[in-house]
Design a protein that fits this description.
Helix content: 25-40%
CATH class of the largest domain: Alpha Beta
Oligomer: single chain
Shape: globular
Number of domains: 2
Largest sheet: 5 strands, parallel
Strand content: 15-25%
Bound molecules: flavin mononucleotide, iron/sulfur cluster
Structural class: alpha/beta
Radius of gyration: 18 Å
Number of helices: 7
Length: 262
């Protein structure tokens, strides 16, 4: 079973391609969080995998929170993480190892997978040719990862010292904020432009349920994990984060549609 957290399809692609090769199922952490679904069973010695993006060099807060609440019956044969990132996964493997250790699981292997960087608040997507080259290279790297997972390669050691907080980044917003979560500096105001059609897709997609529809328009309040699903996947391109995203191309992994489910 492979759990994935994915706003723009990279980690979902990695999870589904790996699951198809291993013949196991996948679970969306975003959907599980929205549905309060935390109980799962593993078949005997089934591999347990996590395909997760890197947020600020560590685990996305939402994934850390899911793992904290996870109730898994059955003993996994092999535990691995595929850490998708735009450049480097930093200390995410250590943070994942620590989060899993808290649940009594030992991480056997963690694999960094460089994919297109969806954090367009501080940068922009590369041109189409460069994007395709990154996706091609990611595909080759993922094939190697799948081969390593299939042979049960172990590469994780806890010698890396203390992991950073597995809760980064969370933005505390409004009254519903959880005071135990560290506050983040503002990364751009959530703006909905006149292009919004009121379709509600952003509210449906938000793994933190912090987008509510009010008078036919979305408002954001609560605890945002800054996954950027609302920004990249609004069909009307109506979501902006301050001025930093204006005019920039949005991203959703174009190869996800070609994965055959296992
Ligand atoms: C809030 C946030 C923080 C990020 N921080 C990093 C980072 O520290 N290092 C990095 O290489 N990529 C970083 N990225 C890029 C993503 O990890 C990368 O694009 C990932 O593959 C996205 O996965 P997804 O398509 O499954 O959502 C960040 C993205 C977001 C949204
Ligand atoms: S997804 Fe876009 S168009 Fe639909 S409600 Fe949200 S902001 Fe408006
Ligand atoms: S508000 Fe947007 S960026 Fe924040 S958690 Fe929800 S979908 Fe992700």
């Amino acid at each position: 079973m492979i759990f994935y957290f994915s706003a723009t399809g990279n980690s979902e692609y990695a999870a589904k391609k790996t699951a198809a090769a291993l013949g196991c199922g996948t679970v969306s952490i975003g959907e599980a969080l929205r549905e309060n679904s935390f109980s799962y069973s593993l078949k005997d010695s089934e591999p347990l995998g996590f395909a997760l993006p890197t947020f600020a060099g560590t685990l996305p807060g939402a994934a850390a929170r899911f793992i904290e609440r996870l109730q898994l019956s059955g003993a996994p044969g092999y535990v691995f993480g595929i850490l998708t990132c735009g450049g480097a996964a930093g200390e995410e493997a250590a943070a994942l190892g620590a989060a899993l250790r808290g649940k009594g699981f030992q991480l056997d292997a963690a694999f960094e997978l460089v994919m297109p960087d969806n954090f367009i608040l501080w940068s922009s997507l590369p041109d189409k040719a460069r994007l395709e080259a990154i996706l091609d290279s990611a595909d080759r790297a993922l094939d190697d990862i799948i081969a390593a997972v299939t042979r049960g390669e172990k590469n994780f050691s806890d010698a890396g010292g203390e992991p950073r907080s597995p809760y980064m980044p969370f933005q505390r917003l409004g009254a519903a904020a959880d005071e135990s979560v560290p506050a983040m500096p503002s990364l751009g105001e959530f703006i909905v432009t006149d292009a919004c059609t009121g379709c509600g897709e952003c509210a449906r997609l938000c793994p933190m349920e912090c987008i509510k529809m009010s008078g036919g328009k979305p408002i954001r309040d609560g605890e945002c994990t800054l996954c950027l699903a609302c920004l990249h996947r609004c069909p009307a391109g109506a979501v902006e984060y301050g001025d930093s995203t204006r005019g920039k191309t949005r991203y959703y992994n174009p190869r996800l549609a070609f994965i055959t489910p296992s």
